[in-house]
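ugh ok so i messed up the first submission bc i forgot one of the chains. this is the corrected input, ALL of the components this time, i swear. 721 residues overall. if the numbers dont match what u have on ur side tell me asap before i send this to the collaborators (the ones from the other lab, u know who)
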Amino acid sequence: MSHASAAPVADAAVPAHEDLVDEKIVGAHFVASLVFLTISMLAGILMALQLVHWNPLVGVELLSPGRWRMIHTNAVAYGFLANAFLGAINWAIPRMTFQPVASRALNWFIFWAWQVIVLATAVGIVVGPSFQDQAWVMDLSKQWHIPFSLGAQGLEWGETPFWIDPVALFGLALVAINFMVPIARSKGQLYVANWYFMAAFVWTFLTYAMGNLLPEYTVGGTSAGAIGGLFIHDLVGLFVTPLGWGLMYYFVPILLKKPIWSHGLSLVGFWGLAFFYPLQGIHHFLYTPIPMFLQYGAIISTIAVELVVATVVINFFGTLAGRSSAVVTNLPIRYFYTGMVFYFITCFQCALQVTLTFQKLIHFTDWVVGHAHLVMFGVFSLWLFGIMTDLFPRLLGRPWWSHTLCVWHYWLSAGGVFVMFLDLALAGMFQGYYWASLQPWDVSTEGAQPFWITRVFAGLAMFAGLLCFLVNLWMTWRGAETGEPVTATAA
Amino acid sequence: MFESKAGVFFIAGVGFFLLAFLGNGVVPMLMYRDRPEVTAEQLVAGIPEPDEPDPEQWKVPPNLRIMNQFRDLAERYPEQFSVAFGEPTEETCAEALRLGRQIYIGEACWHCHSQFVRPVSNESLRYGPVSQSHEYDNELQRPVMFGTRRVGPDLSREGGRRGNDWHAVHFYKPSVVSSNSPMPEYPWFFDGSPDKPNRRGLALITYIQWLGSWLPEYPYYEELVEVTGE
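and heres the new structure output, hopefully the right one now
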């Protein structure tokens, strides 16, 4: 194994850290990711306020809650998660493979290109609809019978305006090349984390190409619906999930200073995910006119992947056994394992809610919104917060300004998202029963108010957690003297 | 194989992705490959029957309902309409539908309103007939707006349920006609007041009135008076 902590190698064979990792780009990606996370959370709060009639910015075209709702999801996926992952793999992959990325210059090009892509997407979504009605755009649409859109396109997470799609795809290809070169050059057995990373580079490119080129331009009708389902599903399952687990396989053994419990279970986890995860796309559109046998196939593979997830989680808790006090003393480890508990909850929830019985009640309700927040924030964002909590002191060369603020960040984030999850799951069941009982529509929106108000405050708590982190980062960056006794955040 | 670079790259990365794409994507594509996609113009004007009956020919009748709604908009808001679309012809109606749908997407209507009726949960009682695959084989369903969340109701059978004036007021300030509605306000679809919908507003109302207009039943709010003979 080429894993730094697990396989002691003679010092002479280990390249210097400076030759492997460009620390500046790790920090740059992290900072960019936090900027986009701030924007995204503000957009989410705007939409939450709209639902409870507290939106202070009514009737402002460029602040329309609908447009900013798409900023919310896109900024999380492409602005926050993609940037934070790029930062983290810029640290992890070179250190794991003992090989630097293919080109540092290319790395910086990717960094700037990606920020331009995300910002252009945001501008397109917010400003685009106001300028959609241009003669040349509508003529183009009329001529080709294709919805060319200056604003959002009609696919969740594929809203990226059509003129950005090829550029983003080119960017993803560059990312794949830059990081697959060190993996390809590495010697000896390939460590688990690198399986996930390598597959993620292939999958992300293919998924993005499929979702952004097929439904709008080539396929129509319910077939495009099936591909749309596959796209939104694969974006979570084949881009976010493998990068997230790959990072866990890297950071958890290093911070716990012990190898992963079972190599066999790692194999089961990776290959099970690779096989079953992509087969489930259609489960987002159950009871649609998509052929029923395809819906059944998606349901069965979703339940199958839950078993795979159980093996992965067992493997990580097996690794923790004997070092469980680390959850108390080591904040990044606490983030990681909280995320894994949430991951198990969401996947267990998946196996239930994917059944047609559950779907009847909870589809289209806030239950699904709660589920999505628990996955994207409760799992992957917490993991990335943990990684940042671990890495920023190393990048800046000094401990966190305030350990207390780090702890507050953890509790507000984890507590806030868990309250939001429970709240929205409950709201979803109420909505489902209101609808099925054929009461007037208003009953379902009025009945949701207590839950939506709770959700606003849960969201504000999560945002307060982020503010703690940002203040702490700012003070640490400035090199402010800490007033607290020195306690290592990662003991 | 399971731990080698080539195995991960080709089997897990490329292979399993393509396998899933084959099952989830290519199978429905092949199943529906014989269905031609109807253009927006054909949706409004219909596809004329050929002189010699051709069983292979896809039959699309002219959509009189959406033309009625479109003409109603022209009569109700004559000044606004003539500036926006000129005359209510089949061609301008197709243009309005295409633009209206782009606005529906750009303003994220589809993130709070679905467009398919499920065969469960009493949905066919609330909305109308359960959605069928052939309803989606046209340009204005590219890509389909199935949606994933219903903050507001499903809209796939919304056409004709309410008058154009109701929609105008509702887009301007939803709470006026639907108290306590959490829907945002869209004053930028109007030139200052709800009786002056601009080109975007007229296009979006046309698109909403089109939804479900292809079904045997179309509630036709405005003609209900004639039907009941009052």
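quick check: Confidence is low (pLDDT under 50) at residues 224-230 of chain B. that seems consistent at least. Chain B touches chain A through 85 residues (CB under 8 Å).
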